[in-house]
Automatic annotation (TrEMBL):
<dbReference type="InterPro" id="IPR001650">
    <property type="entry name" value="Helicase_C-like"/>
</dbReference>
<dbReference type="Pfam" id="PF13091">
    <property type="entry name" value="PLDc_2"/>
</dbReference>
<dbReference type="InterPro" id="IPR014001">
    <property type="entry name" value="Helicase_ATP-bd"/>
</dbReference>
<dbReference type="InterPro" id="IPR025202">
    <property type="entry name" value="PLD-like_dom"/>
</dbReference>
<dbReference type="Pfam" id="PF00271">
    <property type="entry name" value="Helicase_C"/>
</dbReference>
<dbReference type="Pfam" id="PF04851">
    <property type="entry name" value="ResIII"/>
</dbReference>
<dbReference type="InterPro" id="IPR027417">
    <property type="entry name" value="P-loop_NTPase"/>
</dbReference>
<protein>
    <submittedName>
        <fullName>PLD-like domain-containing protein</fullName>
    </submittedName>
</protein>
<dbReference type="GO" id="GO:0016787">
    <property type="term" value="F:hydrolase activity"/>
</dbReference>
<feature type="domain" description="Helicase C-terminal">
    <location>
        <begin position="435"/>
        <end position="601"/>
    </location>
</feature>
<dbReference type="GO" id="GO:0005524">
    <property type="term" value="F:ATP binding"/>
</dbReference>
<dbReference type="InterPro" id="IPR006935">
    <property type="entry name" value="Helicase/UvrB_N"/>
</dbReference>
<dbReference type="Pfam" id="PF26350">
    <property type="entry name" value="DUF8090"/>
</dbReference>
<feature type="domain" description="Helicase ATP-binding">
    <location>
        <begin position="234"/>
        <end position="386"/>
    </location>
</feature>
<dbReference type="GO" id="GO:0005829">
    <property type="term" value="C:cytosol"/>
</dbReference>
<dbReference type="InterPro" id="IPR058403">
    <property type="entry name" value="DUF8090"/>
</dbReference>
<dbReference type="Pfam" id="PF11907">
    <property type="entry name" value="DUF3427"/>
</dbReference>
Amino acid sequence: MILLTDILERSLKKAFIDQRVEGSIYDPKIIINDVETKQYMLNVLQDELNSCQEFFFSVAFLTQDGLAALKTQLSDLHRQKITGKILTSIYLAFNQPAVFEDLLNIPNIEVRISKKQGFHSKGYLFKQTGYHSFIIGSSNLTMSALKINYEWNVRLTSYNHGKMIQDIQKHMEKEWQEAELLTPEWILNYKNFYQPTTFFKEMTMVNEHSLIDKDVPYIVPNKMQKIALANLAELRESGAGKGLVISATGTGKTFLSAFDVLQVKPKRVLFVVHREQILNKAKSDYQKILGGLDKDYGILSGNKKEIDAKYLFATIQTISKEQILAQFPKDHFDYILIDEVHKAGAKSYHRVLDYFKPSFLLGMTATPERTDGFNIFELFDYNIAYEIRLQEALEEEMLCPFHYFGVTDYERNGELISEATDLKYLVDEERVTYLLEKLTYYGCSGNSPKGLIFCSRKQEAQTLSGIFNQKGRPSSYLSGDHSLEERENEVERLEKGEINYIFTVDIFNEGIDIPKVNQVVMLRNTQSSIIFIQQLGRGLRKDHSKEFVTVIDFIGNYKNNYMIPMALSGDTSRDKNNLRKDTFDANFISGISSVNFEKIAKQQIFTSINKVAMDSMSELRKSFDLLSNRLGRVPYLKDFQEQQTLDPLLIANKKATYYGFLENIKKNEATLTKTATIFLMIATREFLQGMRKQELILLQNMMNDLDRSWSLENIKQLFEQESLLVSDEIIRSVLNTLDLSFYTGSLAKAYKKQAFIEKIENKVTLSPLFKKEMNHAYFIKLMEDILDTGKMKSASYVPTELLTRYQKYKRKDVLRLLNWQQQMVDQNIGGYTTSNGEFVIFVTLKKGENFSGAQMAYEDELLDTSTMKWFTKAPRSLNSPEVKKLMHPKDWTIRVFAKKSDNEGTEFYYLGDVKPVEETIIELEKPTQDGGKKKVVEMLLKFSEPIDLNLYRYLEAGQD
């Protein structure tokens, strides 16, 4: 039995005496915020909270955003009845009253205020099982310190009886006893004398890129706008008469268009919008940029007809009327701009665009993708002048930071809210109480909430609004049934603070500007990534009244939950591995924004990911059409990979080949032979993933010189030129793959011995059958597309390693990449197999009650990021051949592959190589499923390098 004290001794020795010593998760560690690796102090705090039994923070400064980033972890701890303490101060009057109010709303934290002058500590203590971990350094509990600033922090681990931890605990307890308890009365008293420091005022100033500051006498373009303006000018110089700008909501599209008008200097401008309430704001923004007389600016709407203005701002509903159009010459406007141009598929827009003949037409949208068949890209001659999406806009600090909370929706009788939940339960008194508790807990930036709440049904929204009013939360309800005037009145009331919330269903997704919104609440199933981002975007416009936006998404038992990480990350590949990663490791969000899921909500997302068919024909066709519209032609696999719009594996494998998919939708260029389709099918299955680049490079070079014979030395030189791993075993394995001799069983039968190459007297040439198909240009095009795409995808794999850690592999692929001469049937491999000095282990961690193929209930388990408890097959004893191999590990490379459950399919994460801990190898008996007993050998396996912590957390999380 390995003692924790022994592990801690090794960790200290590795850190402070000899770095070559085997380490563990307990190693002392320096923590520095690193944007490139996406590793932050915030992650470490969250991980410690996820596993602790109690905690104690001693921090001088706290901000609402820093506290917000930990609220889901604190909520999960509350469910487990785990509590903590925070000791803070009023040093320099940095801590705002609002952050103390937030602290008071967290039920499992006790807070005290130090009376010490100059209290400036930054320490985080966690009681874990059998030990304590603590972090000391420079980071306060502010989002900047946890994610952005250059900070130095050290994480240390101590056995419970260590002197240092005893000293820290004694000191903290002493300070705690001398400090003052945080109470509502204390906060009220603090408010009375609180004056923010100059430093804090400057720190919280909202940088709005000079776009809405009315006191700025001269407004200049921001970084994004300068690039877009240069691109637009270049477009016009090339003779283009149209341009499309794709820009996230809140990034200053209207100002951009005004700057472009300024540089073009047209005689007359038409600005077309789809909602009347946008007109006055657009007109005002233009006046700030262009200046001039008031009479130069006019409105064309149902109420105003100022058609003689130089700069005319019109609603599409009015300008599209025949009698209105007839009042203008066709060339009246030199420059026409269409706002929210993704709506331009409507007949009203067609009438306007067909009528006018401007010198330049500019379209602006945050979401050009449409599902109704209309091609926005074609409308603008595929001229994309500039594109900036949510992630980039956050990186450029163009949007208000947000904190997204994936919150578990209300449970009734042990069941979560779902699509089928009856309305009466959606508006049930207990659910409303639960909603209000969560809204209070996650809070907002500012004096009071100014929130939009998106519901699934009109009656739900209307009823909830009424109940909120009864409970002292002033709110209103709006839908498409309300007039423009009614909507504007309610928005004005929200901005003035007369109401806290507007409940809505089918409006406010777009085309409305409410900068003061500081809370966005989602009480509905996510139906599309586009709508999700549109609703999120309602709060992202910067405003001096808020430092961040709180987004609270109530996640129930919805089949579309998988869309949430897809929307937040911007990843449209439909790759389940990516979605899982983005759920358990939400570091894809840039800047001081954050994404956090409560534990149960996270499990709901994983369940949805596992159940959904990512390759449904309707979704694949939708992705195909979107990319086809963007490119103006039939896309190929490499286009999907380059544009990052869809994982090409999904669309290629749907009908066995991409040729089969194109044939199904009647988009193929020509008809190929059965032989050709089998070659494409083999290449799709074996090469498209790009796991090993050698096959791709060799086959592509052979295709470029059909009649050449390749010696083994030629092949070796080729691989060396490409900086690829090379050995006699690798070359033999590559050739066995290309001549199909590696494959056995059902795969050999499916591949029909259609070898790509043949070997004759140590020379390699293309097979006659393959060369024959090379006479068809369309076959060559599709084959090269597979190889080019495979090479692009190979960038995800380390070229100098046989296998890449944390990538997923099927058993077949593992054997091929480890240079096995022939494939083994999966059932014959089972949990492990050995050959040529390689011992490969495949583990399913969450086996469930009906785990197929198991004689007994195996209890394989990841104990920590460095250790796995593992069992051999049964019956086995200490004298079994494979056990003897494990007892002499120096002769073997032992590799572990694991998946969470069978719900993840047949692929396993490669976790790395291990060594058995000799003293833990024991023989024991375990009950079998037929009621008997069989011998089995149990042992601990030690990883040579710790497993990625986020992957470990995911694999060890509860059942999905």
